[in-house]
Design brief:
Pathway: Nucleotide-sugar biosynthesis; UDP-alpha-D-glucuronate biosynthesis; UDP-alpha-D-glucuronate from UDP-alpha-D-glucose: step 1/1. Helix 6 links the parallel strand 5 and strand 6. The protein has about 475 residues and is an alpha/beta fold. The protein starts with 5 loop residues before the first strand and ends with a strand. The protein folds into two domains: about 200 residues, Rossmann fold, CATH 3.40.50.720; about 160 residues, NAD(P)-binding Rossmann-like Domain (Rossmann fold, 3-Layer(aba) Sandwich). The strands form three sheets. The chain has a six-stranded parallel sheet, with helices on both faces. Strands 11-10-9-12-13-14 form a six-stranded parallel sheet, with helices on both faces. A two-stranded parallel ribbon has the order 7-8. About 45% of the residues lie in helices and about 15% in strands. Nicotinamide-adenine-dinucleotide binds next to helix 5.
Length: about 475
């Protein structure tokens, strides 16, 4: 198959940035150019100090430092990069639609279509187009239709290569993936393109871990994988509520079922709910697709995963309000963590946003500390909900740069993210400075419950 020497990736976000950095690191003979319309983002990727790159991921600064300027480049010159590449990854955002048909459910494919049209306009040589973004099944058909109607004789092959990295462990996941999935056309040209991409990954991924399928299976497998993972979280969260009513302990239940090799131990941590840019968006999309084929039961089945997650987030806020004698008005509630999981600065769909919003509706004063999320981001997340005016949000929320000040004088602490540092705090000191009785609501089962009870805290842990 054709040897690839130049790759372009459109979209320098949480997926495009780390993924291409690792390809460049592992394939020093391939020139990799990551392009984006967002000048500030590209400037940050080019910051001489790789600790200032826009995506916080353990291990990523080192990878960027190794490859950047050698065979890894970040640029806003989209046309130029498209023109010279033999293989183009599309890694732009595919958010839930906020308007029109499918509003609140379907994936918004306008950025994908814009990329396809731009590629069609700029290309003068044959290219392999790789869908890296998560897309509804059969999107490749639309991309193909746009690319094949340019009339300039340029040949395009479309591949689907969904990304399975999880944030916070992106580099580990990219260095040693469980599998790489590549979907392509069964035609001779399709298989040749597919093999060209297999060869890229084979530079560091064992061949038996590189799965190949047809385009539609690959597209649908990505939505399916996220639906299954999210379903496990909603399942364990559903049972966490039953535990609280029966004296069973969700950690013990999780351990008991997780040792069954058919179930497996991972992804069974009860929590304040799943967040992140993917799970909700992809399940809503799956539900929308099933409904569009008239498959009502299939749609309802998967929609329940979201309904359960919304319930779990709301239930946590209600628990705080109820426990604080049914009123939090004027009380200080300290949030430890704002990111949707540890080891990332990403806050998209973070449960903290929704729990904070509920508490603000009750006129609580919410103080927030997160080791990696900025004040601007936290306020932006709340303002984006449009629940109240921006000035009201700024009045009710205070952001701190350390946990001890954040918790000073608080009536309650709500642990929203499982950052490791929360485990090693001086909890005696935090207790001393709080309003009594001092409550801790552990939404992640992260702190030592027994120790906190001994200190004098009133502790609520999900599922206990
Ligand atoms: P992101 O929002 O972080 O990055 C997308 C980038 O694309 C943005 O910087 C945006 O400016 C840029 N962009 C949009 N349109 C463009 C255009 N026409 N030309 C140039 N640049 C353009 O998104 P992300 O989290 O990296 O996700 C990208 C895709 O990967 C989505 O489809 C998502 O579902 C999928 N995905 C995400 C994850 C994850 O963990 N975040 C994991 C697997 C798959
Ligand atoms: C997910 C998929 O795991 C990944 O394969 C895909 O490429 C993108 O979407 P991500 O959203 O980055 O990755 O993180 P993930 O580790 O899956 O966590 C998602 C959410 O579920 C987080 O809010 C996390 O805290 C929560 N979660 C996860 C739980 O509440 N309990 C668990 O046991 C596992």
């Amino acid at each position: 198959s054709k040897k690839i020497t130049k790759i372009c990736c459109i979209g320098a976000g949480y997926v495009g940035g780390p993924t291409m950095s690792v390809i460049a690191q592992k394939c020093p003979n391939i020139k990799v150019t990551v392009v984006d319309l967002n000048q500030a983002r590209i400037d940050a990727w080019n910051d001489p100090d790789t600790n200032n790159i826009p995506v916080y991921e353990p291990g990523l600064p080192e990878v960027v430092a190794e490859a950047r300027g050698r065979n890894l480049f970040f640029s806003t010159k989209v046309d130029e990069a498209i023109a010279e590449a033999e293989m183009i990854f599309i890694s732009v955002n595919t958010p839930t639609k906020t308007y029109g048909t499918g509003k609140g459910m379907a994936a918004d494919l306008k950025y994908i279509e814009l990329c396809a049209r731009q590629i069609a306009r700029v290309s003068t040589t044959d290219k392999i187009i790789v869908e890296k973004s998560t897309l509804p099944v059969r999107t490749a058909e639309a991309v193909k239709s746009i690319l094949q109607n340019t009339g300039n004789g340029v040949q395009f092959q479309i591949l689907s290569n969904p990304e399975f990295l999880a944030e916070g462990t992106a580099i580990e996941d990219l260095h040693a993936p469980d599998r790489i999935l590549i979907g392509g056309d069964p035609t001779e040209e399709g298989q040749e393109a597919l093999n060209a991409l297999v060869d890229v990954y084979a530079n560091w991924v064992p061949r038996e871990r590189i799965l190949t399928t047809n385009l539609w299976s690959s597209e649908l497998s990505k939505l399916t994988a996220n639906a299954f993972l999210a379903q496990r979280v909603s399942s364990i969260n559903a049972l966490s509520e039953l535990c609280e009513h029966t004296g069973a302990d969700i950690s013990e239940v999780a351990r008991s079922i997780g040792t069954d090799s058919r179930i497996g131990p991972k992804f069974l941590n009860a929590s304040v709910g799943f967040g992140g840019s993917c799970f909700q968006k992809d399940i809503l999309n799956l539900v929308y697709i099933a409904r569009s084929y008239g498959l009502q039961q299939v749609a309802d089945y998967w929609e329940q995963v979201i309904i359960m997650n919304d319930h779990q987030k709301r239930r946590f806020g209600n628990k705080i309000i109820k426990t604080l004698y049914n009123t939090v008005s004027g009380k200080k509630i300290a949030f430890l963590g704002w990111a949707f999981k540890k080891d990332t600065n990403d806050t998209r769909e973070s449960p903290a946003i929704f729990v904070a919003d509920d508490l603000l509706n009750e006129e609580a004063n919410v103080s927030v500390y997160d080791p990696k999320v900025s004040e601007k981001q936290i306020l932006g997340d709340l303002n984006y909900l449009h629940t109240r005016t921006e000035s009201k949000n700024s009045e009710l929320i205070t952001i701190f740069d350390n946990a001890y000040d954040c918790c000073k004088g608080a009536h309650a602490i709500a642990i929203m993210t499982e950052w490791d540092e929360f485990k090693t705090y001086d909890w005696e000191k935090i207790y001393t400075n709080m309003t009594k009785p001092a409550f801790v609501f552990d939404g992640r089962n992260v702190v030592d419950r027994k120790k906190l009870l001994e200190i004098g805290f009133k502790v609520y842990t999900i599922g206990k």
